[in-house]
Amino acid sequence: MQKAIVIDEVGKPAISINRPIPQAGPSELLLRVTATSLNPADQKTRDEGLFFKQSFQVLGHELAGEVIGIGKEAGPAKFQLGDHIFAQGNFIPGQVLTDSGALQQYAVVNASFAAKVQSAGLTDEEATTIPVCAIASFVALFHSTGMALPIPPASTPASQATSEFLDTAILIIGGGSNCGRFAIQFAKQVGFGRIITTASARNEIELKQLGATHIIDRHAGYEANIQQIRDITGDSLVHVFDTVNNAQEQKLGLAVLSNTKKGCLITLNRIPEVRFSAAEIGPKTAGYEHKMTFGFSALYPEISKLFWERVASWVKEGAMRPLPFSTIQGLEPTTVNKILDRYRDGQGQKVVINVRT
């Protein structure tokens, strides 16, 4: 048996239970979990039953650990016993996350959605900050349900950035968010000449290091933000990724899209049920797309495999860096609930849980 942190009833605090140690299926790896981290989705799972309504779900979608079991179709060409890997839990909305949930001592993951920690030159703790937020931005920018941009190769020297986008701008709303940080880095790899982001001014130095060319102070206000963005892009902006806003707050992303060229706003959150009027966002005479995407490797296996095949190289070469984080020790439900409470209250920062026993 092993210790796990689970949701036993939606709307109630996470609790600790003992549950069986899973076995690796044919395409899976069995891990002795060493580190995991939490995300806003875990808070919404606890409080709202996000993506599922059934009782009992192991929390956590991203994890790192030591390989102690390999399914017959999962290696040994790619992974060997003793390797330390990082991965995203094998989860599809509507299913229950149990054996591949991260907040337990042993978990199984799909070998297609994993990469070696050593190949990336990271610690287990650093690596576990990558999967959820990086995949969310990856799907939003590169999958057909998102912007469908060309996926960067495993190795892209800066001098060989895709020239197709050198005269093109992209706006990333919420660049200081965890997903926003990865989106900026992906936009740089694609080769966008202007990478604009809304963020707090205190994040300007970090976000420019990641690749942003223009920082718009989100605290300046709605009208000021629109004017500042249009001063940079004119009426040419057709790529906007909103990493943070819900429903009605997504108006900014639509308002700054070109009024004469067909643009696209991608979001990670729910879209308003009623479309904004032309008086609110401009005429948009060529139309626009407004789409929500889901950041789950298992939901889009073909494109996700490309991410997991390339992510270690991106990190190793400096094209992607892990998120800033703090660390706590052990699988303790009281501490986990406090972290989730901070996400609920809009104060969440990345926290890695060291699970080593």
UniProtKB/TrEMBL annotation:
Required co-factors: Zn(2+)
Cited SMART domains: PKS_ER
The entry's keywords: Metal-binding, Oxidoreductase, Zinc
InterPro entries registered for this protein in UniProt: ADH-like_C (IPR013149), ADH-like_N (IPR013154), ADH_Zn_CS (IPR002328), ER (IPR020843), GroES-like_sf (IPR011032), NAD(P)-bd_dom_sf (IPR036291), Trans-enoyl_RdTase-like (IPR047122)
Every Enoyl reductase (ER) domain range: 8-353
Gene Ontology MF terms in the entry: oxidoreductase activity, acting on NAD(P)H; zinc ion binding
Cited Pfam families: ADH_N, ADH_zinc_N
Family label: Belongs to the zinc-containing alcohol dehydrogenase family.
Protein's name according to its UniProt entry: GroES-like protein
